[in-house]
Amino acid sequence: MKLDDTDRKILDCLAQDGRMSYVDIGKVLGLSRVATRERVQQMVKNGIIEKFSVVINSELAGKTVSAFYEVECEPSALLSVARKLTGNPSVASCYQMTGPSMLHVHVLVEDFHQLENFTNKELYSMKGITKVNSHILLRRFKSRTGLKL
Q1: Which fold has domain 65-136?
Q2: What CATH number belongs to 5-45?
Q3: How many CB atoms lie within 10 A of CB 115?
Q4: What is the structure's pLDDT at 116?
Q5: pLDDT band for position 147 (50/70/90)?
Q6: Where are the CATH 3.30.70.920 domain residues in the chain?
């Protein structure tokens, strides 16, 4: 499916407010509710819209410590390590990066005691991990909540 300007504008509306109704999107773009609904459903069907979700302010929800880890793994253990990490409720995201079997992991926890437990009990004890670098977030300037098209 090739996106046109109207599709991009619909995606912009949904990125700003995922609960925006088809009627309200249609008013912004000069479309009917039915035309808007059909376009959104087509983008869902084609995988352009993967899912609708809520963006939670982690700090206000009690997860006040945000840390990023660069986790180097033995090449044969990368998928196993990634599966274990993504199963952990403290892991917000996990990506395979370029470099020597590298994972980039974002962790959200309530306090530094939980961060220490995650680091020592989860990461350092996991088989297949060869090196861990950590970075604690001080301030967030921008967070991805939608792709600007």
Answers
A1: Alpha-Beta Plaits (3.30.70)
A2: 1.10.10
A3: 19
A4: 97
A5: low
A6: 65-136
